[in-house]
Amino acid sequence: MAILFRSTPAATERWRPLLASLMPEHEIRYWPEVGDPAAIEYALVWQPPPGLLAGLPNLRLIFGLGAGIDHLLRDPDLPRDVPIVRLVDPYMTDAMSEYVALSVLRLHRQDLDYLAQQRAGVWLEREQKNAAERPVGILGFGTLGRDAGKKLKALGFPVAGWSRSPQQVEGFATCHGPAGRDALLAGSEILVCLLPLTAETAGILNAAAFARLPRGAGLVNAGRGGHLVEADLIPALDSGQLSGAVLDVVAHEPLPPDHPFWRHKRIILTPHVAAETHPPTAAPIIREAIRRFAAGLPVPNVVDLTRGY
Ligand code: NDP
Ligand code: OXD
């Protein structure tokens, strides 16, 4: 029985010693050295080349090396009868909440304006609200959204969360469905997207959604680039409907050098680093999932392919 590992070359070098010491009982093969495909039962993958998984006839379980699995669903030949486990790691959850808290605070405390003033040598106090007066709406109130919500709440922000199914989360206003989304947008001075990318959520951050937000709202997108209709963002920023956007993800990564987002004064960009996979904490989680699967026990965080996440 062998495990196939495939990620970026840099990530592969971080994982290699960890997997060797944590799973000495398994033969681990590092793509592109697949060897006999029939020997591979488990695949640990990030952005596998299309067709790679379909070429493994005895594959029993796929681990996506990230929280989102859209990188797997893009493969038209994905073997849909093999269960997919996504990565849920408290280390990553903490990282995402740090990113969201930082981004929300930057928008709330008018960082973009103060940076512009600093560059222009302008000493000018701007009117400032308290966090308690700045409602935050979170699209995607799952593992990451709820944790970010709790931490924003601890900072004083009123937080509402939107999900696909009705959810009761103590201390939060929650909603679901299109009507719930529109109500959440109308009441959110800062909107955070932590959705998975699915057919239902693609393009959800668009001109119509921005128009529903209170004028001057801020946007944080740490979900996927495909959530944002990129052509709609700059007009919303230039008209003042949005006051700023923090983007960790974009449609085409890395962002092309001539893309207007690089230089727009009201956009803060980071290169998909909000919550990176952390091999030292992720590897034991994967080892435990393999142990459970091999023992015939239920494995947590199996993706529901009918929902797409
Ligand atoms: P979860 O599956 O735990 O949560 C997803 C949430 O989105 C759930 O609340 C779900 O609703 C909701 N949702 C899904 N589809 C819809 C829909 N059509 N309408 C309304 N709500 C919907 O995922 P995580 O919180 O772990 O991760 C979320 C995403 O964050 C990942 O898929 C990935 O794209 C992104 N991510 C980005 C990272 C980065 O570094 N930028 C790092 C890690 C993740 P319900 O509760 O009803 O199921
Ligand atoms: C993930 C990511 O989905 O890093 O884990 O984007």
**Category by helix and strand content:** alpha/beta
**Helix run count:** 9
Shape: elongated
Give the overall average pLDDT.
98
- Give the biggest beta sheet: 7 strands, parallel
Low-confidence stretches: none
Radius of gyration, Cα only, in angstroms?
21 Å
Q: For the record, give the distance between the C-alpha atoms at the N and C termini, rounded to a whole number.
A: 28 Å
Number of strands: 12
Q: What's the arrangement of strands in the largest beta sheet?
A: 8-7-6-9-10-11-12
Q: How is the topology of this model organized?
A:
Elements (H helix, E strand, L loop, with lengths): L1 E5 L2 H14 L4 E4 L9 E6 L15 E4 L5 H4 L10 E2 L4 H19 L2 H10 L15 E4 L3 H12 L4 E5 L9 E4 H10 L3 E4 L13 H6 L4 E5 L8 H9 L3 E6 L19 E3 L9 H16 L15
Parallel strand pairs: 1-2, 1-3, 3-4, 4-5, 6-7, 6-9, 7-8, 9-10, 10-11, 11-12
Bound molecules: NADPH dihydro-nicotinamide-adenine-dinucleotide phosphate and oxalic acid.
